[in-house]
Amino acid sequence: MRRLPGVGALAAAAVATTLLTTTGVASASTGVLDLELNEARAAGTAVDSSGHHHDAQIGSRVRMGGGHATFAVLARDAALGTAPLVRVPDARDGSLDPGKGTFTIVMRYRTTHGYGNILQKGQATSAGGQVKLQQPGGRLTCMFKTSRGRATAGSGSVTMDNGAWHTVRCVRTATSVTMYVDGRRTGRSTHSTGDLDNSMPWTIGGKPDCDGTRVDCDYFAGDVDYVRLTKG
Ligand SMILES: [Ca+2]
Q1: Pairwise pLDDT comparison (78 vs 138), residue with the higher score
Q2: 10 Å Cβ neighbour count for 109?
Q3: Rounded to the nearest whole angstrom, what is the distance from the C-alpha of residue 224 to the centroid of ligand 1?
Q4: Rounded distance, CA 172 to CA 142, Å?
Q5: Residue 74 CA, ligand 1 centroid: distance in Å
Q6: Does an H or E element contain 34, and which?
Q7: Of the candidates 229, 179, 227, 226, which has an alpha carbon nearest to the alpha carbon of residue 66?
Q8: Multiple choice CATH, 27-231, 1.10.443.10, 3.30.70.940, 3.10.110.10, 2.60.120.200
Q9: Residue spans of beta strands (DSSP E) within 54-129
Q10: Confidence of residue 77 (pLDDT cuts 50, 70, 90)
């Protein structure tokens, strides 16, 4: 039993090394949000493990447990406020905004429903732009948009709504957006996307501002294991 902590530490170090290698992220990058979503069932707060205390509010319709968050409200359902969402309020210092430079989203999830907004900051009309991961028809797209431009990368021929766990990495630079699914590059768009900085929360599971009629809520149904955001 005394060997276990050592083995665990070794495994964690190996994972960290792999992440750095596969992304090519320099040591100057900073994790700004890390929601592992390992909370117990009754938790109302999801802890940000990045050390920046960007803790998330867990909506009453989100079920925790088993090391992930389960979202069960369907896209066609009526607006339910923030109950179906995990929500991280905007940071006043701008630390949660992608800004102008490199910004990386890593997320692991599974679903059998081919629709819904999985992760976003901002909506179509938000001042300061929008970043959104959605999966119409089971094909995941990652979009960064401001008044200065838009770039979207997708999962290509990879179908995401097959019930299997998928690890997604969306890397935005000043001039491109690239998506990797399960370690394989699936899409790339080379466009400048300007300075993305809004006052909206990060939400997992759908839109924070919707009424289900004029603005659809686009709820996501499935499990999310973790969401990790890195700047630089
Ligand atoms: Ca987890």
Answers
A1: 138
A2: 25
A3: 7
A4: 9
A5: 22
A6: strand 30-35
A7: 226
A8: 2.60.120.200
A9: 56-58, 62-65, 68-71, 86-88, 103-110, 117-121
A10: confident
Distance 163 CA to ligand 1 centre (A): 16
User: Which pLDDT band holds residue 78 (cuts at 50, 70, 90)?
Assistant: confident
Contact yes or no for 126/209 (Cβ under 8 A)? no
| Residue 67 C-alpha from the chain's centroid | 16
Q: How far is CA 202 from CA 26, 87, 156, 158, in A?
A: 25, 6, 25, 25
Sketch the domain layout of the chain as residue ranges. Answer: 27-231
The stretches of the chain forming alpha helices (DSSP H) are 4-23
Name the average pLDDT for the chain: 90
- What sign results for the dihedral spanned by CA atoms 199, 205, 208, 211? positive
Calculate the alpha carbon distances from 155 to 21, 51, 75, 166 in Å.
21, 31, 21, 11
- CA of residue 153 to ligand 1 center, whole Å: 25
